[in-house]
Fold this protein.
Amino acid sequence: MATPIRNIAVIGDGGWGTTLAIYLARKKYQVTLWGAFAEYARQIQKTRINRKYLPGVEIPQSVVITDDLAGAVGPAQLLVLASPSQYLRSVLKKLKKFSLADKVVLSVVKGIETTTLSRMSEVIAQELGKIPMAVLSGPSISMEVVKGLPSTAVIASSHPRLAKTLQEIFHSETFRIYTNSDVVGLELGGSLKNIIAIACGVCDGLGYGSNTKAAILTRGLVEMARLGKAMGARSQTFSGLGGLGDLVTTCVSSQSRNRFVGEQLGKGIPIKNILLSMNMVAEGVETVKAAYKLSQKYNVPMPITTEVYNIISRGKSPKAAVTDLMTRKIKAE
């Protein structure tokens, strides 16, 4: 960037987008938070609280809240993309109508597009072309970050100078930011861990113990790294914050939406009913469909992912899925 970044637009007013808008405003950046629904954006603007996605947290008056995409994008030097993964492409199609010259994009979206099997940075490149881009991911529950509890994340980019610039923008004494050049690994880690969190939630719903959850978490990490390596990621990325760190947080946190979905499945509640009861998106429900297809495409065995897919897409009994996992052919670790 020729000039220092001061004006930032957060595209997506969900829990994570709102958290980052608040966080950056506290760091004295000029922040605009864009939401797709005019009526809800006006409600947040009036009350200064995102009751649906981040209840009880006041949004600073300095944050401009709008449904006017042109107004949000126009003055921004940095666009933080925070839309749910399955809606990102439609948002990008709107964005590319504007001049994006001299702008930088940071994706904080976790997921894989089910129709194309594309990672989010690939979707961005397909729609926006060769725009300077980075990805932020890691073990960062929104409510903990916004409360200033010590948290960490990783920014990955193929442009080291860009990663360093964004690291300096987001880093603070409560939110420690690392950099990495493995965009593929960081995106897959942040996406695939949601599937394993659903599996851990299933174990909670079935009343199983810590032994079971530890096994699912550990072997799930193996699956994540196995697919990642096949897709060009570095195996060690999955041992870091964007892999193991994010996985642990999502599998054990009471605030994890994906773990909650799994828990309800384990209790016998149909997936349709679970999703209807939720305000926020559980990315793992869609991501597992893409991951299952990717495992077949790359011929990578992913038994936990396969069983989560069977539960969600084929109506398999959670208990039968666990039994089938436990009774597979024995082998070396």
Observations:
- Residues 129 and 261 are 35 Å apart (CA to CA).
- The radius of gyration is 19 Å.
